[in-house]
Amino acid sequence: MVQVVDILNLSRNNLNGGLPGSLANMKNLSSLDLSQNKFKGMIPESYANISTLKQLNLSFNQLEGRSHLAASHRFSKKGLLILGVLGSLIVLLLLTFSVIIFCRYFRKQKTVENPEPEYASALTLKRFNQKDLEIATGFFSAENVIGASTLSTVYKGRTDDGKIVAVKKLNLQQFSAEADKCFNREVKTLSRLRHRNLVKVLGYAWESGKIKALVLEYMEKGNLDSIIHEPGVDPSRWTLLERINVCISIARGLVYLHSGYDFPIVHCDLKPSNVLLDGDLEAHVSDFGTARVLGVHLQDGSSVSSSSAFEGTIGYLAPEFAYMRELTTKVDVFSFGIIVMEFLTKRRPTGLAAEDGLPLTLRQLVDAALASGSERLLQIMDPFLASIVTAKEGEVLEKLLKLALSCTCTEPGDRPDMNEVLSSLLKLGAKIPPPLPSSS
Fold first, then answer.
1. Among 185, 225, 253, 414, which one is most buried in terms of CB atoms within 10 A?
2. Alpha carbon of 415 to those of 34, 88, 410: distances in Å?
3. pLDDT tens digit string along 337-379?
4. pLDDT tens column, 96-110
5. What cellular component GO annotations does this protein have (predicted)?
């Protein structure tokens, strides 16, 4: 016996397979809803023979073909109209979405040639044009050069509001591709960082093919390399306590980079020329063109990352970074240890010779002197420093060099982290009484 049903709603029942042709035998069926199931295949032609059917909903299935509803010409026309409108809307939405994706991709591709860097909108840095910086630096006069490297030249300048600044101009002609990468990296890094012992970036200039430059806070005492090695520097200012204070400033900047920001940041090229001193002789770590941000999963900053490009400066490079390209925060710890030795001995990290004429590194020289006793230790010190240290300061000096030597252990795991280094420096500095105020 054929069941008599007026309305049959089997929607949302997770039904699958082909549509049952037997439904065409149901008498007086006026509404059939099979939507939102998992039916597949062709729509049975027998559905077109249901003369009483007024409404048929087969949407949200995986069906093919047309129903050929002879039962209701009115339904066919209405259904086709609805389907046509829906189809048009879907096509329009797809076209709109495709245009949006294409525009974004095209804009991203053009960014390389666009004089406005992609990160500029996210920064609060002032943008200078080439003319601004030419006027500020006397058209990049050689008289205003205060530092130079293969990738950049740094000029002293004065902005239109009278502020003294340092303008770091990239050498585009010789190293354009590498300079672009370093410039992008340095601006992105500096724009995120806020610490008193890191150099402060004030603005930038970016004109494609013409100029890429950073405008930095000017440090009137120059860089540490000049203070250590250039003749004419007054040595009387550089007591053991003053040198420890500079080392503390550098260590504080590195502690922030390694563990005080959202992600560990490795400087990768820490050396005296990248340490700038303000009017109070407080140190500021600078030049982040080679800096690397380690992944957020590296909670202690000690896991390994890698880089294929050669970076860093010979003499300050940790062995695992120089030879294996293994990058951790301990790379900066090694460089810091070398800087401390250089600051105390006034000797370069390489190019030294032993008494027998064999080549010697600064680390080897300090290691041998520590093993030979305090008298030998004073012989390798900066002569001025050796002439003024008291017996008490001599003990601190020895401990300071032992700390520096521990920072340069061959195995990264044997080196202290910068938090430990800073704590040790503060304790050593506290053992030296401050100088007595001079009488007027």
1. 253
2. 71, 67, 8
3. 999 999 999 999 998 887 777 889 999 999 999 999 888 999 9
4. 878 787 777 656 554
5. membrane
pTM for this structure? 0.68
Q: What is the pLDDT of residues 29-88, one digit of tens each?
A: 788 888 888 888 888 877 777 777 777 887 878 777 654 443 444 445 566 667 777 777
Tell me how long the chain is.
440
Residue 52 dihedral angles phi and psi, to the nearest 5°: -90, -5
Give the domain-ending residue among 217, 241, 273.
217
Provide the total of helices (H) and of strands (E) in the chain, helices listed first.
12, 20
User: Shortest CA distance to 347 belongs to which of 387, 298, 380, 396?
Assistant: 380
Among 184, 198, 208, 74, CA closest to 123: 184
The set of catalytic residues is 269
Number of domains in the chain: 3
Q: Which two tokens stand for residue 173?
A: 């002609």
Q: Crossing angle of helices 362-372/391-407, nearest 10°?
A: 130
The candidate with the shortest Cα–Cα distance to 214, out of 173, 182, 178, is 182
Is residue 207 domain-shared with residue 264, that is, in the same domain?
A: no
Pairing of strands 359-360, 352-353: antiparallel
d(CA 362, CA 365): 5
Last residue of a domain, one of 177, 199, 217: 217
Same structural domain, 270 and 419: yes
Spell out a b/e string for 53-76, using b for 16 or more CB atoms within 10 Å of the CB, else e.
Answer: beebebeebebeeebebebbeeeb
Mean pLDDT of the chain: 82
Q: What number of other Cβ atoms are within 10 A of residue 93's Cβ?
A: 10
- Identify whether residues 257 and 374 lie together within a single domain: yes
Q: Kindly give, in sequence order, each residue whose CB lies less than 8 Å from that of residue 110, ignoring residues fewer than 6 positions away.
A: none
Q: List all residues 6 or more positions away from 439 whose beta carbon is below 8 Å from its beta carbon.
A: none
Q: What is the CATH number of the domain that holds 160?
A: 3.30.200.20
